[in-house]
Write a structure and sequence with these properties.
The protein is an alpha+beta fold and 286 residues long. The chain contains 8 helices and 15 strands. It binds N-(5'-phosphopyridoxyl)-D-alanine. The site of N-(5'-phosphopyridoxyl)-D-alanine has 15 residues, from helix 6 and strand 13.
């Protein structure tokens, strides 16, 4: 079965899906996107993702082309038409096809593109060893709360990690932790989970919110605030979170071990809670 995608109301094989070159997504990166994990064919935190989509659309002044019920139906059809029980749905909305002009076009239909890909969650061995990260100055714009498809700064920042044999780049703006190039970042200090605030400097991660919820529900101490680079470097544990990577411990940062260099006790507690939560979602009606 070939990968089936959705483009502007039609389901079709990916190699038959084309977008005109004047699409503003292609020309300007003028659009927003979402990535939603699907476990055992159950969409994970759909409502939260659709709320964030609405916020992103509002942020770029683009009308939502679908109701939440329509989005849910499209996503479920895409899941059904693709192979594999665990998938992730990428979808984006652009300001459509128009003569090139920075200003918004009038009466242009947005472009809606959706695809499903196989989801491979991090294996246990990776949770045990953890991953490496490097640091960089956060040189992005100040609306990082919008999940914009214009990702060039994130692309360059994430490539920096790859160039150094690491998986993620941890970003600091004015000496304060913001997030990763493609993930949110948490630290643990003396058993307390430290998280940056959801402001314009970071994407409000759906996984980030779940980690906060699970910490609050299970009595894990939590502090939300602006954390300096030196505090982050001295942390006992660092984690990254995202819809495709779930929660992963960062055990090396800029070539130095984080804490004792192994995945920490608070990580394992949170990992267990996250997996339990996932299992509950998978048991619920699709
Ligand atoms: N990225 N911050 C940034 C800059 C991100 O790109 C992502 C996720 C996150 C985590 O958000 P969430 O928990 O909702 O996935 C934070 C996705 C997975 C991507 O672009 O592929």
């Amino acid at each position: 079965m070939s990968q089936i995608v959705h483009l502007n109301g039609k389901f079709l094989p990916i190699d038959q899906a084309f977008v005109p070159v004047l699409d503003r997504g292609f020309i300007f990166g003028d659009g927003v996107y979402e990535v939603i994990p699907v476990y055992s064919r159950h969409v994970f935190r759909l409502e939260e993702h659709l709320t964030r989509l609405q916020n992103s659309l509002d942020g770029i002044r683009l009308v939502n082309p679908h109701t939440n019920a329509e989005w849910a139906a499209l996503i479920n059809e895409l899941i059904a038409r693709n192979e594999g029980d665990d998938q992730y749905i990428y979808f984006h909305v652009t300001r459509g096809v128009a003569k090139r002009d920075h200003a918004f076009p009038k009466d242009t239909a947005p472009t809606v593109f959706m695809m499903s890909s196989p989801l491979t969650t991090p294996p246990r061995e990776l949770c045990e060893t953890g991953v490496s990260a490097v640091s960089a100055i956060d040189n992005r714009w100040d609306r990082c709360d919008i999940k914009a498809i214009a990702l060039l700064p994130n692309v360059l920042l994430r490539q920096l990690a790859i160039d150094h044999g690491a998986v993620e780049t941890i970003l600091f703006r004015d000496g304060v932790l913001t997030e990763g190039a493609a993930s949110n970042i948490f630290a643990v200090e003396n058993g307390v989970v430290l998280a940056p605030p959801k402001d314009h400097c970071m994407l409000p991660g759906i996984t980030y919110d779940l980690v906060l919820e699970l910490a609050a529900a299970n009595g894990i101490p939590l502090e939300i605030g602006k954390f300096t680079e030196s505090r982050i470097r001295a942390a006992d544990e660092l984690w990254l979170t995202s819809s495709t990577k779930e929660i992963l411990p960062i055990t090396r940062f800029d070539g130095h071990p984080v804490g004792n260099g192994r995945s920490g006790a608070v990580f394992w507690k949170m990992h267990g809670l996250y997996q339990e939560y996932k299992a509950k979602v998978m048991r619920s009606p699709a």
